[in-house]
Design a protein that fits this description.
Length: 254
């Protein structure tokens, strides 16, 4: 029976955490509804593909995905030919060759997404001294996860009366301290979605947050499916063991 109780407690805990409102360093983050939330939730592949488009067209000029192989995109519905075409759009430094020199070549699916800058110093020089963070694990690195990403991307506003921004800083309602070196990069119709979805700021923020959630844990759907199967197995197994116990002790008189 202990295994049965453990299974139910695990499921209840997972369901409870899925709906918990979060906060980041004292800044309340509104909880959003996501198709991948909860025990049975799965990544919205169409949203993740749109989010990849937002990343590629808007975010990739400053932010890298250095831990993510390009072939990971198979998990959101791209086929092998599409992934090869996407990879070929990137230029990858490779080598050394037989002469000891580095050389450039088109990307292949096994390559990781290249950084937009050759090094951190170049990245700082192009961003007023600020180092744009790598986005590979951003959905897990920030308290609030995708809720925080969505809030941050939609939280740029004019500073309230009495608030003075430092030079080169922008006001964001949900960033700790409210002053951030990144400007508001999402504009209405800033991208043209291939599926015809209207590219509002909120839609772009939701889509790219979904994409970054996927790349931070590309096996999340498989893990959830496995977890559900394990819980069901434990429930059935606990019931069987209880029935066996009753059968074995049925003839024993106390």
């Amino acid at each position: 029976m202990r295994a049965l109780k453990t299974a139910f407690l695990s499921a209840a805990l997972a369901l409870g955490l899925a709906g918990t409102a979060v906060a980041a360093e004292g800044v309340a983050i509104p909880a959003q509804s996501w198709p991948h939330s909860g025990v049975f939730g799965t990544i919205d592949r169409a949203a993740a593909q749109r989010g990849f488009q937002v990343y590629r067209d808007v975010c990739a000029s400053c932010h890298s995905l250095e831990l993510v192989p390009i072939r990971t995109l198979v998990g959101i519905g791209y086929n092998e030919d599409q992934i090869r075409a996407i990879a070929a759009d990137y230029t990858i430094e490779d080598g050394p060759n037989d002469a000891g020199d580095m050389f450039d070549r088109p990307g292949i699916p096994a390559d990781r997404f290249p950084s937009p800058f050759p090094n951190d110093q170049a990245a700082r020089a192009s961003n007023n001294g600020a180092l744009p963070p790598d986005l590979s694990l951003m959905a897990k690195a920030r308290v609030g996860g995708e809720d925080y990403l969505y809030a941050f991307l939609t939280g740029f506003k004019e500073p309230p009366e009495g608030v003075t921004l430092m030079d080169g800083m922008y006001y964001n309602e949900y960033f700790p301290g409210h002053q951030v070196g990144m400007p508001n990069i999402l504009m209405p119709d800033g991208v043209t979605y291939a599926d015809g979805t209207e590219a509002t700021v909120e839609q772009q923020a939701r889509d790219v947050s979904t994409f970054l959630t996927f790349v931070a844990e590309p096996h999340m759907d498989t893990r959830k499916q496995t977890g559900v199967k394990v819980i069901l197995f434990l429930i059935v197994f606990a019931g069987m063991m209880y029935a066996v116990k009753r059968q074995l002790w049925s003839n024993v008189h106390h």
